[in-house]
Amino acid sequence: MFDKFEWIASRYEELSEAIVQPEVIADTAKYQAYLKERANLEPQLDAWRRYQSLLDGIAQAQEMLADPDLAGMAREELDALLPQKPLLEQELRILLLPRDPDDDHNVIIEVRGGAGGEESCLFAADLVRMYSRYAERHGFRVEPVYTQDTELGGVKECVFSIVGSGAFARMKFESGVHRVQRIPVTEANGKRQTSTCTVAVLPEADEVDIDIDPKDLRIDTYRASGHGGQHINKTDSAVRITHLPTGTVAACQSERSQIQNRARAMQVLRAQLMAQKREAADAAYAENRRVQVGTGDRSERIRTYNFHEGRVTDHRIGLTLYAINDIMDGDLDEIIDALKAEEQAAKLRSLT
After folding, report:
1. Mean pLDDT throughout 73-102?
2. d(Cα 125, Cα 251) in Å, to the nearest integer?
3. Which of 101, 169, 253, 301 is geometrically suited to a Cys-Cys bond with 179, CB 3.0 to 4.6 A?
């Protein structure tokens, strides 16, 4: 099963030799591709080398058992080394699992208010802040695309991208309906309310991934609303693009110029069309946007945020954490790591 790691070690050395060759350095595209492939192999190679070192240590300790003067020390060594073997073998199996080809991509996140009126829009704004703080913690860059605000500071809809290697691998588990239980600021009687927001996480598609005929597009410009100062309120810089064959709409109002807004809207449109393409090609696509987002009804949820009890529960894996303030401040790692572990376990089960 581990024969592939020998090929990985060989390929790593081959790439290491190639990236110092003048003809490769001169070819920027090839040089970057080789660097990326080499970097992707490093975790697998590191685990394989640790495993080989462990096997060597076990073999040496077993040889020492034959020497009466060294047998005691050898048994202690084996007691320390042997329990590590199944753990490293499990790590190697996980590293051999097929990777999601989108894991390294940037992501486009769409957050919308669902059931619950103004309170759902206020919580949508909280979710946008949570994801922005999480991105900052991981060194990702947040780029706004489109926001439709409410008068009380909530958002009916917010589209933004998170830029950074591995962004989709971390964020893809957030697609779905998020339920909040708390006393809304709009509630004068102090009565707790249950509301929902929908979140869609889409891998950013490259131009080569999706072919869009310009004749299939209707492009409208309009005056942006909401925050942005004098400029954003006085020029028709916002752009809305409609893909006529599918009716898919993408808009951007975050940039100063119409050209920049058009480019950002096209990024969103490509991601949406790529998600639809995958859905049509494979009905079981794990990140199927329509399936995961659902209708926004209170009963369709992946996670509940209960402010009265200070808890957050992810219903997909039955994980409950009493750390709602930290989580709302972007500390999502414990939840995302648990979801990633469950994803890996599911893949391993499918191979047995």
Report:
1. 90
2. 18
3. 301
- The tokens 């439709």 sit on which residue? 148
Report percent pLDDT > 90 for the chain. Answer: 56
pLDDT at 47: 95
**Domain containing residue 280: CATH number:** 3.30.70.1660
Q: How far is it, in rounded angstroms, from Cα 38 to Cα 11?
A: 8
Contacts of 142 (CB under 8 A, 6+ apart): 131, 132, 135, 136, 160, 161, 162, 163
| Residue 80 to residues 61, 77, 102, 234, 325, Cα–Cα distance (Å) | 11, 5, 39, 71, 40
The count of other CB atoms within 10 Å of the CB of residue 9 is 16
Q: What is the pTM of this model?
A: 0.72
Which candidate, 154, 177, 163, places its Cα nearest to that of 135?
163
Co-location of 80 and 109 in the same domain: no
Rounded CA separation 194/261 (Å): 36
pLDDT tens digits, one per residue of 210-251? 778 889 899 988 877 654 444 444 567 889 999 999 999 999
Cα atoms in the 13 Å half-sphere on the side-chain side of 114: 25
CA angle (294 as vertex; 288, 278 as ends), nearest 5: 15
Q: Give start and end residues of each alpha helix (H) in the chain.
A: 4-18, 22-26, 28-64, 71-81, 84-96, 118-137, 167-171, 229-234, 258-281, 289-293, 324-328, 333-351
Task: Give the 3-state secondary structure of residue 66.
Answer: coil
Whether residues 187 and 278 share a domain: the answer is: yes
CATH code for the domain of 24: 1.20.58
**How many domains does one find in the chain?**
2
Tokens of 233: 């309120």
Query: 152 and 13 in one domain?
Result: no
